[in-house]
């Protein structure tokens, strides 16, 4: 069995729901792809992730679905910096030692040295984006997503010799249900390209493609409106807990690693 190491860094604003999304990525990868098995290396991490899953499911439990709206702070995570280790096995042909580091890029919590070290060592950088904030809230949405900090942190810690970078960059818009349901994902893509234009240009100069990989982290709960400074969400459809596409960022990451190592799996 071939064995590879994969280091993934998840960057985004404090309390944007990054670790909830990471939990969904791991859970979806395990459930949806029968050829892939993911195992936790730490029982405490496994318990924590399963607890997070139960919390997300509880949002959609029968005693909650009659609420007319939810607020963003009920859907957010409050961790600032953490790393999680997993073993990913594919058809008993490939074993991947996966390390995912969740970094909040808010000015008051970020540790530049440690964050820079993880980014420098990363194979894949995932920029986690609070989609309703970015699309609906103008300049405030850029501040809420810590766009300047994210761009500066990535550019500072990925300058390679001769202008080359051996990393993959993924932009992952979260909570994008409203835009998927209404056929407005083009607005999300345009907002990301315009907001992170400097980073796209920097990556293009290094001749490495960057990808936008949206995920639906809330299922039948979608952004509704802004009330004061609060982002409100409403139930739609069957009111089911049905996140979609959440495994895709890790699928992109694994494919990138396999191609990078020129590994052939038959």
Helix content: 25-40%
Alpha-carbon Rg, integer: 18 Å
Give the termini separation. 12 Å
β-strand number: 10
**Beta-sheet strand percentage?**
25-35%
User: What's the helix count?
Assistant: 10
Global morphology:
globular
Largest sheet: 7 strands, mixed
Lateral strand order in the biggest sheet: 2-4-5-1-6-7-8
By secondary-structure content and strand pairing, the structural class works out as alpha/beta
Question: What order do the helices and strands follow?
Answer: EHEHEEEHEHHHEHHHEEEH
Average pLDDT, all residues? 83
Poorly predicted runs are none
Question: How would you describe this structure to a colleague?
Answer:
The protein is of the alpha/beta class. It contains ten helices and ten strands. The chain has helices spanning 18-32, 43-59, 112-121, 131-136, 138-144, 147-156, 177-181, 185-195, 197-205, 248-260, and strands spanning 2-12, 36-40, 70-71, 81-90, 94-104, 124-130, 168-174, 210-212, 221-227, 230-235. The protein is globular and about 55 Å long. The protein starts with a strand and ends in a 6-residue tail after the last helix. The model has no long low-confidence stretch (mean pLDDT 83).
């Amino acid at each position: 069995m071939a064995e590879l190491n994969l280091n993934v860094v998840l960057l985004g604003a404090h309390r944007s729901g990054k670790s909830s999304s990471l939990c969904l990525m791991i859970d979806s990868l395990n459930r949806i792809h029968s050829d892939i098995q993911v195992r936790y290396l730490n029982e405490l991490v496994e318990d924590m992730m399963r607890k997070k899953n139960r919390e997300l499911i509880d949002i959609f439990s029968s005693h909650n679905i009659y609420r007319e709206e939810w607020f963003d702070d009920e859907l957010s995570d409050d961790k600032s910096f953490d790393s999680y280790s997993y073993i990913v096995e594919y058809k008993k042909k490939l074993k991947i030692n996966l390390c995912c580091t969740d970094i909040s890029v808010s000015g008051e919590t970020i540790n530049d040295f440690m964050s820079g070290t993880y980014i420098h060592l990363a194979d894949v950088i995932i920029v986690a984006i609070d989609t309703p904030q970015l699309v609906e809230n103008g300049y405030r949405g850029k501040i809420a997503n810590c766009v300047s900090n994210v761009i500066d942190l990535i550019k500072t810690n990925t300058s390679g010799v001769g202008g080359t970078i051996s990393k993959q960059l993924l932009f992952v818009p979260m909570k994008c249900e409203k835009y998927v349901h209404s056929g407005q994902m083009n607005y999300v893509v345009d907002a990301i390209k315009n907001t992170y234009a400097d980073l796209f240009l920097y990556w293009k100069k290094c001749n490495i493609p960057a990808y936008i990989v949206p995920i639906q982290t809330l299922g039948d709960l979608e952004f509704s409106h802004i009330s004061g400074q609060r982002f409100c969400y409403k139930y739609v459809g069957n009111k089911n807990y049905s996140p979609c596409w959440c495994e895709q960022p890790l699928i992109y990451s694994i494919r990138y690693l396999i191609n990078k190592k020129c590994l052939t799996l038959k």
